[in-house]
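Please check this record.
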Amino acid sequence: MTTIGVLGRPWRADVTPWGAVDPWLGTHRLDWWVAADDRWHVPEHETTLRQRRLEGAPVVETRVKVPTGDVVQRVYAVADDGGLTVVEFENASTLPVAIALSHPDVLTTRPPADVPIQGIELPAEAIVLPLGHHASVQVALAHDGRRSGPLVASLPSALQVARGWLIQMERASRLVLPDVSWGEHVTSARCDLALAGLDAPESDPVAFLLGAHELSRLGAPVEDWVPMVVDAAEQMARGAARAGGPTWDEDRALVATRAILTASHETRGVADVAAMRLRLGERRTAALAPPHGVRVVAWVEDQLARPAPDGSCALLPSGFPPPWLGADFECYRLPAGDGADLSFAVRWHGERPALLWELHGAPSLRLTGGGADATWSTTDGHGEALLATPR
């Protein structure tokens, strides 16, 4: 499921893996089917179905194979006209098709066809929208409760909405990486968090702490969360101590806790968390692949810059992923510990990587080369360096 909605407004819906729209409240599920030249296509059961999020945003594109091409559905929410969930259909084939919708409670750019539906069992109230080759049509669910009517003609496109989400999510950090999927994982997790909210601290203190940090980086006020943050961090740390050390995500959650307390000017709490990390010692687990949920943000950023308990920060602690060798990349506003944000870029000079970096918030923090170059370190707030050839 992918949650969609508009920030600052309460309406939410889930988009199923086949593109049905399932509102959290009110209107019942909006499902869809395609009548093509060969047969009726039921997206829920089609083996040719593919689905993705555009640039990691809550903009869901679902494709179903039909003769001579695809039928493409895109679902996204906009604030226009009181709030709308737009469901757009594009016939990317060379033959006409018809789209059937499970109920008529939608705004439409043109009225449905008044023709009988044959060849498939559909709900009695289903409606049909003919769609010529290389044509498109939009319908929408109104967030204010309207059940039918005309749909405004000029709405943002799916790509425009995706780009808008990306701009908002990059307030926290911006990643221009050789593996594009890493950045999309981060964007998806942040969007889901912004729409669905925090995990309960008592059920998953790590996810709560990581999520609270991400929301604070996106501009949410954090002062009212401080008591819950402290309680969750203490609960998590007690469990880590009993287990013989923190897991990788528990360690990142303590980094997040310290950042939240720093932003809230809780000086004593900042020092307590730093001492707690030193007492707990080295991590006892590592994550070798991207996890799910908000943890993926911590995982990606941990591969790029890892704040250490001693107050330093290691760049690329696991070294360069082999597919990245020779590829330029950039990272902006990564948590570096001690209230600092780190931005850096890598440019290649033959087989050697050139590092350009800039720190904000703690100019005397010590950077190390981590797995990229264990011999390199600096306390300069910005500069350039030529690192060793990766082995």
Observations:
- The mean pLDDT is 93.
- The first helix runs from residue 158 to 169.
- The CA atoms of residues 54 and 356 lie 30 Å apart.
